[in-house]
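TICKET: design request
STATUS: open
ATTACHED STRUCTURE:
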């Protein structure tokens, strides 16, 4: 009889330990799923924020003409060299 009682105690203890291990695994799986969901939501929010960000506006032709006129005046006044004027003019025209 003592053998059967001991076997029952060991078997019961093993059952409870196994049950606790499984509960722990289930909890870990649940936590990982929550983490994955949060990461997915963050990535989606970042993507939406990037899509909503306005693209920088290209300078209008009027703005470019005004800048070129100002550059020409600076060249005529001797403030800019011809090389500086040409470099800035190229930048303005390439941005159109």
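STATUS: resolved
RESOLUTION: sequence designed for all positions
ATTACHED SEQUENCE:
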């Amino acid at each position: 009889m003592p053998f059967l009682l001991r076997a029952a105690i060991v078997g019961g203890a093993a059952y409870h330990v196994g049950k606790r291990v499984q509960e722990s695994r289930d909890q870990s799986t649940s936590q990982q799923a929550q983490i994955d969901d949060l990461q997915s939501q963050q990535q989606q929010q970042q993507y939406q924020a990037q899509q909503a960000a306005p693209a920088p506006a290209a300078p209008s032709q009027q703005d470019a003409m005004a800048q070129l006129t100002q550059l020409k005046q600076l060249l005529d006044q001797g403030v800019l060299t011809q090389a500086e004027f040409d470099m800035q003019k190229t930048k303005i025209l390439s941005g159109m």
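CLOSING REMARK: The chain has a mean pLDDT of 84. The CA atoms of residues 44 and 67 lie 41 Å apart.
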